[in-house]
Description:
The complex is a heterotrimer.
Chain A: E1 24-29, H1 41-49, E2 54-60, H2 66-78, E3 83-88, H3 91-104, E4 112-116, H4 118-122, H5 129-148, E5 156-159, E6 163-167, H6 171-182, E7 186-190, E8 205-206, E9 211-212, H7 213-225, E10 230-233, E11 236-244, E12 247-254, H8 266-272, E13 276-278, E14 287-289, E15 291-292, E16 304-305, H9 315-319, E17 333-337, E18 339-342, E19 346-348, E20 364-366, H10 367-376, E21 384-385, E22 388-389, E23 392-399, H11 424-438, E24 443-448, H12 458-467, E25 471-474, E26 482-485, E27 493-499, E28 505-511, E29 513-518, E30 520-522, H13 526-532, E31 559-561, H14 571-589, E32 593-596, E33 601-603, H15 613-617, E34 624-631, E35 634-641, H16 651-655, E36 661-663, H17 668-679, H18 683-689
Parallel strand pairs in A: 1-2, 1-3, 3-4, 6-7, 6-18, 7-10, 18-31, 20-29, 23-24, 23-29, 24-25
Antiparallel strand pairs in A: 5-32, 8-9, 11-12, 12-17, 13-14, 15-16, 19-30, 21-22, 26-27, 27-28, 33-36, 34-35
Helix pairs in contact in A: 1-5, 2-3, 5-17, 6-7, 6-14, 10-11, 11-12
Chain B: E1 6-13, H1 17-28, E2 33-36, E3 51-52, E4 57-58, H2 59-72, E5 76-79, E6 82-89, E7 94-100, H3 115-119, E8 123-125, E9 134-136, E10 138-139, E11 151-152, H4 162-166, E12 179-190, E13 194-196, E14 213-215, H5 216-223, E15 243-250, H6 266-280, E16 285-290, H7 300-309, E17 313-324, E18 330-336, E19 342-347, E20 350-355, E21 357-359, H8 364-367, E22 394-396, H9 406-426, H10 441-446
Parallel strand pairs in B: 1-2, 1-12, 2-5, 12-22, 14-20, 15-16, 15-20, 16-17
Antiparallel strand pairs in B: 3-4, 6-7, 7-12, 8-9, 10-11, 13-21, 17-18, 18-19
Helix pairs in contact in B: 1-2, 1-9, 5-6, 6-7
Chain C: H1 3-20, H2 22-46, H3 53-60, H4 64-76, E1 80-86, E2 89-94, H5 95-99
Antiparallel strand pairs in C: 1-2
Helix pairs in contact in C: 2-3, 3-4
The structure holds flavin-adenine dinucleotide (FAD) (2 copies).
One flavin-adenine dinucleotide binds at residues 167-173, 190-193, 198-200, 203, 206-207, 237, 343-346, 348, 367-368, 371, 423, 427, 430, 523, 525, 528, 563-564, 569-572, 574 of chain A.
Amino acid sequence: xxxxxxxxxxxxxxxxxxxxxxxxxxxxxxxxxxxxxxxxxxxxxxxxxxxxxxxxxxxxxxxxxxxxxxxxxxxxxxxxxxxxxxxxxxxxxxxxxxxxxxxxxxxxxxxxxxxxxxxxxxxxxxxxxxxxxxxxxxxxxxxxxxxxxxxxxxxxxxxxxxxxxxxxxxxxxxxxxxxxxxxxxxxxxxxxxxxxxxxxxxxxxxxxxxxxxxxxxxxxxxxxxxxxxxxxxxxxxxxxxxxxxxxxxxxxxxxxxxxxxxxxxxxxxxxxxxxxxxxxxxxxxxxxxxxxxxxxxxxxxxxxxxxxxxxxxxxxxxxxxxxxxxxxxxxxxxxxxxxxxxxxxxxxxxxxxxxxxxxxxxxxxxxxxxxxxxxxxxxxxxxxxxxxxxxxxxxxxxxxxxxxxxxxxxxxxxxxxxxxxxxxxxxxxxxxxxxxxxxxxxxxxxxxxxxxxxxxxxxxxxxxxxxxxxxxxxxxxxxxxxxxxxxxxxxxxxxxxxxxxxxxxxxxxxxxxxxxxxxxxxxxxxxxxxxxxxxxxxxxxxxxxxxxxxxxxxxxxxxxxxxxxxxxxxxxxxxxxxxxxxxxxxxxxxxxxxxxxxxxxxxxxxxxxxxxxxxxxxxxxxxxxxxxxxxxxxxxxxxxxxxxxxxxxxxxxxxxxxxxxxxxxxxxxxxxxxxxxxxxxxxxxxxxxx
Amino acid sequence: xxxxxxxxxxxxxxxxxxxxxxxxxxxxxxxxxxxxxxxxxxxxxxxxxxxxxxxxxxxxxxxxxxxxxxxxxxxxxxxxxxxxxxxxxxxxxxxxxxxxxxxxxxxxxxxxxxxxxxxxxxxxxxxxxxxxxxxxxxxxxxxxxxxxxxxxxxxxxxxxxxxxxxxxxxxxxxxxxxxxxxxxxxxxxxxxxxxxxxxxxxxxxxxxxxxxxxxxxxxxxxxxxxxxxxxxxxxxxxxxxxxxxxxxxxxxxxxxxxxxxxxxxxxxxxxxxxxxxxxxxxxxxxxxxxxxxxxxxxxxxxxxxxxxxxxxxxxxxxxxxxxxxxxxxxxxxxxxxxxxxxxxxxxxxxxxxxxxxxxxxxxxxxxxxxxxxxxxxxxxxxxxxxxxxxxxxxxxxxxxxxxxxxxxxxxxxxxxxxxxxxxxxxxxxxxxxxxxxxxxxxxxxxxxx
Amino acid sequence: xxxxxxxxxxxxxxxxxxxxxxxxxxxxxxxxxxxxxxxxxxxxxxxxxxxxxxxxxxxxxxxxxxxxxxxxxxxxxxxxxxxxxxxxxxxxxxxxxxxx
Lengths: 690, 449, 100
Ligand SMILES: Cc1cc2nc3c(=O)[nH]c(=O)nc-3n(C[C@H](O)[C@H](O)[C@H](O)COP(=O)(O)OP(=O)(O)OC[C@H]3O[C@@H](n4cnc5c(N)ncnc54)[C@H](O)[C@@H]3O)c2cc1C
Ligand SMILES: Cc1cc2nc3c(=O)[nH]c(=O)nc-3n(C[C@H](O)[C@H](O)[C@H](O)COP(=O)(O)OP(=O)(O)OC[C@H]3O[C@@H](n4cnc5c(N)ncnc54)[C@H](O)[C@@H]3O)c2cc1C
């Protein structure tokens, strides 16, 4: 059943046409063997063909194909069918497809009922073909029973706000915002931190083009910032939402920046700040003040106060009292948007203390840190780290990725990161190339399980690394490398590894620096998941509805995904996903109208006595209310549904003492007929079940 | 008389999954699209696959409804068996001259009943079945083809007229010739797809002469419910194989073939096929010889681990050569990398080459769109605007832009649609009026110059 | 256009096609002949009950890969049926024999 419901321009009309005798068409799909390998579809068709009111009963290799659909259309026309029942995959996959088929043939699309005989039958009962066939017959027979009680319905149509909200100001969010705005729709982009750009800003040159990250990013930011259709709020998060696709009312909570405009003398103000904290831009390798710029040239070009660490001492404001104001709170405000793009990005995996010596030895760093180390290193002479010249570097892949339960320690939620983070291999090899080019004398060891340089131009980094003398050692997950202090004291560390390129021998690699190619984890967005009712997958990244049919949509219509909030991706993939998300938003909103399934509660005013039991039972604020009406000159209370808010859950149906409420498309009468049919004696079934 | 033409917002070239999705994404936004496919049916390579990773949905379940949606969308004009011949810039738009090849079948009359096909006396290797089975000189291309209409292959026709006699609706029409057609489009999306490494590319792997050394697409057909044998059998003698081996990177990451890149999909399709095979042939031993397993996509690593848990054998090895014994069993010479490159010869019943992806079409002459060293369309700004080409108003999607799987092709198609839409909005001159203007079928006919 | 004109147009078109495609038609005719000869041997070898591909190949002296291809082609167009199994092989039989 659908999840969300909208506000119709006109209340859903529940037209009850004079009942004509049902003329049923029954279709059983082979699903290319998925069903027919287990269920004897021909037999199902034969038995159902003998049921009352059934005019035709047919099978097809794939009913959803054009030929299958054409057959149904033709039957509707030729045999004047007025109800269609299809037994196939889950309705989730193709209910919409067949609604289109039925309506093309001139029938109300809700005169069709879908029975899932793949997920609910052939896939789960695959070891018992006879039983599965009997089950298919029973399920289909229940479908027929429901079909006899179907009523024509109209989808709920509501106006869609031509305005989208993008959450997250990384490269994916920026890209999505630009594409939606270019399409002529209004965009509001919110970024949780005071600065735009996300993780891309922390990269130097990026694979596969080796272009400079920040100039490319700034070009995009400029376009977004100057687009007349885009409004950006930094230091802003979502605190609540209501409504549904076309009409989400979103509460935003901004935090003050504390600094205004270019603020002359801002550098002096920053220097005046007595607070020093680890600088997240350099992943804690350096320190910054509590009033700060993210990096020189960052966007927006206005400093911000880090309220987390600011002691409100006022030293900075003394330097520039005009532009610095130490007041954090701002009032929340509301915007109404038709769709929401989630581009909340990722965070690098943070190794556990002691994992490969991380946190124990200063010579063990993560790849993002290493990229910052290289960014800050002078080219001349030697690379220095922790006071030593670096002569040997060991790179360890798959840290925090491709983990195996029982081998790796789980995260606090009890799960290991069993997925591949896909960017780390190429990012590591690109960093290696940079190291090789700038410090050719350093010996590099690369400890890996599989090298996954899959993308266009990625393999070249691998090839170059091999050619340039990087020594590759292959470990098995169960016998990962171990980092210890060098017992000889010659180098700070030794990495012990069983190398399976040479019979699994244990080798000892002395190292001055160990770089952990950490994977990606989704950003901390539990609150957002809560507010927007999103579903994370097993890997904690946000889940798409279907990887092929609807790869950037979430289960909540109108909320789409862009970039690494969905799964690990590189910049190119994040941008492609963001653009695809923008396409979906444009498709939803550009017509200014959205259509939703009419499966919402409906009150029979003839039976309603205004007890209010339904209102008490309802979980969705405003979905059902009592209204005063005048009937026969008397003022009475009657329940009224707001179809925009009602989700069709049916709680009110069970609460109503008068049986005055039904969920359209799933009425009690329909359920009762189905239950009766499922339990009924079907003469032809006796043989099958015998 | 003034030349008549179909005016659309966007032309999409190629009706594989990427071209179909780009068309749908544009059409859903209200733009008018012309989709031109050179084959007699849309569907591309995907429609010939069995089940598709990572969800293992049957491929038809995903593809056929999209094909149907394309055919029925009111904003999409579909032209199959049609090729673009020339393109001229026309002040902010492109005039695209196309030729629709003769099917020798009146598609207005043909019902797809296949009586002609049964009547035709000649059997020819069926490309849809990768040559493993036959079709006739006149046929409906495959059971889920869109349009579901017969097409006559004049180069293999006896001109005997048997089909004409068999046709119950008199749809066979020998008077047909190529039809010219002009499309004026303001933006273009190239979705011309990929080819696979030819099976005979490597002499070391038998140069295509060993009948029990097949390629990945052939195995897709063997596994498909509409396959050539309806079982997994080996082509030399119809034996159900007990031992099947996969040779990874057979055509990718191979400098000797001039293909240095990774084709991205082969690890996953080999693992997928291995899993499907262990369902179809529970007793069979399945071995995958690989250099690196690259299951990088969402949920893909878990897919790989499941395959290992199912008992599929993964051997890190290079396959140096494949020969066959007197029973035509392939003998695979492997260098086992995990054991310091120890060399071993192993016998299997059937070997599958995990062939890579090659570009299918060179867009330079017609579209002026540059290609990169690897032969695929070069992106003008690969990181930030992946579908954009150097040619204004021309975008690219799917495997035309490099190897990728279906999920990525679909996402790229959505991205290309977004870029094309943004371009159309930025350049909304007088042409803007086309959007939303529906062209009647009558007008559609009239555009045949 | 009346029926007569239509018929004339068709005849002219066919004539033109035959001229233009003389070479491919000749080649296809040769292929057809070859196919018919092959099928004759194949059918003879298939007579008398279900057989596997190696059995048909042995009985006909035809190469087993080609036998498989033709049997599958014939199966597709309902001239042959798959009727059973013998160890690692499926068995096939001429459709008319199965029908009897
Ligand atoms: C070490 C390393 C090296 C890399 N090198 C490369 C490379 O060379 N080439 C390449 O192509 N890719 C590379 N990548 C990948 C690249 O960094 C990502 O693909 C890209 O940054 C993802 O962008 P995004 O917008 O999805 O996420 P992010 O960059 O994470 O942006 C998300 C944004 O959303 C904001 N946000 C989060 N939650 C909220 C909220 N609740 N409300 C509002 N805002 C919120 C965040 O503050 C952030 O600004 C690398 C990654 C790593 C880890
Ligand atoms: C053996 C194998 C198994 C696979 N299995 C899977 C799987 O399980 N899951 C998965 O996600 N991916 C899989 N893939 C990858 C998948 O096939 C591709 O990702 C997908 O089909 C690409 O679609 P496309 O539209 O880009 O290209 P194509 O399918 O190649 O479509 C291109 C279309 O354009 C047409 N065309 C080309 N040039 C022109 C022209 N000049 N004019 C007009 N039309 C033209 C072609 O005829 C074709 O119809 C597999 C690939 C192989 C080789």
